[in-house]
Design brief:
By secondary structure, the chain is an alpha/beta fold. The protein is built from seven helices and 20 strands. Helices cover about 20% and strands about 25% of the residues.
Length: about 350
């Protein structure tokens, strides 16, 4: 371990959307801010593949809506553009395995989903550009937090940091399962954190690119809803410029332990039922098994339901004599488990810090 000690007023654990937004909100304050990120990339559960070639494939957070007002406001401030997700007026629907799929009429959607032009990663790049170049330290998973008098000592494999305030933006279950605390956090908090759902944690996202959007032909659709699976939902994922065509969806998380090749075979097998041989003519296949990401997911002790304990009151408290603040989308009391929740959490914590 490098024994050099790096001191900051505020240290943020995690360079995902919450962490980057919080650093951005505090950049003109009186505090020095540092972000420590375990991965070699920014974004956490935002992951855009193909970003540099303007052929974005989202393997993580993708959609937002007009009801996500803080997210919309941040995008406007960063001068980022959104566009409506293509849904169409009908969807391929597969109700049960003993009946064939059919085209179902979709009702009008008063609140359409939107995507970021150029990919969701645009917001990460825009926020990072607003910060000082030395604000973010990557490839440093935090392994230990120790309260010593009026500071917190933060240890990673290569560095030791000290900070007056530490903000964790990690999923609560990940936080209490991977970071040693001294003194220990209250057992009531640990038990609840371990029973808190990690957004995206069990998800498997899959996408296929094609030379043309054949699903837009008559009597077809790029919107798929299936109770049979293993793809439960799928959508047209072509880019804003209409120069790149893709389908993206959610694959059953139960298949996390099989190989990529086995999942691909199952994907093609299902899509052939809807599209015939056209489904086989894909250019690229992408997938992300979030359960296999150690800096996102750790197994729960017991069965946990989607969004379970997200936004719980206990996450609004601070710990270690007020020096440890808990943040991130799972802790937000507004749209927890969405990008809006991540941004709302950052605003809530920034206000708490500035008013302290």
């Amino acid at each position: 371990m490098n024994n050099s000690i790096i001191t900051n007023d505020i240290t943020i654990i995690g360079a995902g959307l919450s962490g980057l937004t919080l650093a951005y909100l505090l950049k003109d304050s009186k505090y020095t801010v540092r972000i420590i990120e375990a991965r070699n990339r920014l974004g956490g559960r935002i992951l855009t593949k193909g970003y540099n070639s303007n052929k974005p494939i989202e393997m993580g957070a993708t959609w937002l809506g007009n009801q996500h007002t803080q997210c919309i406001a941040l995008l406007e401030k960063l001068e980022l553009e959104v566009f409506n997700q293509k849904i169409g007026d009908q969807a391929i629907y597969e109700a049960i395995s003993t009946s064939p799929p059919y085209l179902a009429k979709l009702p009008p959607n008063p609140q359409p989903s939107m995507r970021l032009r150029g990919g969701t990663e645009q917001i990460l790049q825009a926020l990072a550009k607003k910060l000082n170049s030395n604000t973010i330290i990557r490839n440093q998973p935090v392994v230990r937090l120790t309260e010593i008098n009026d500071i917190i000592k933060i240890e990673t494999p290569d560095h030791t940091f000290t900070s007056n305030i530490v903000v964790s933006t990690l999923p609560p279950n990940l936080l209490v399962s991977t970071i040693e605390m001294s003194p220990s956090l209250p057992q009531s908090f640990i038990d609840l954190a371990k029973a808190t759902h990690t957004w995206m944690g069990e998800s498997i996202k899959i996408a296929l690119t094609y030379s043309e959007p054949f699903w837009r032909s008559n009597n077809l659709s790029g919107t798929i809803m299936s109770n049979v699976g293993p793809i439960g939902e799928m959508y047209d994922h072509s880019n804003y410029e209409e120069s790149f065509f893709a389908l993206k969806g959610f694959f059953s998380g139960n298949y996390f332990s099989i190989t990529k090749e086995q999942r691909l075979a199952m994907v093609i097998g299902q899509l052939q039922k809807y599209y015939g041989h056209q489904a086989e003519k894909f250019l690229h296949y992408e997938e992300k098994v979030w359960r296999n990401e150690p800096y996102t997911f750790v197994p729960y002790n017991d069965h946990v339901l989607p969004h379970q304990n997200n936004g719980h009151d206990i996450f609004q408290n601070s710990f270690l004599n007020g020096k440890l603040i808990i943040g991130g989308t799972e802790t937000s009391q507004r749209y927890p488990g969405y990008m809006e929740g991540a941004i709302h959490s950052a605003h809530t914590i920034a206000k708490k810090i500035i008013l302290t």
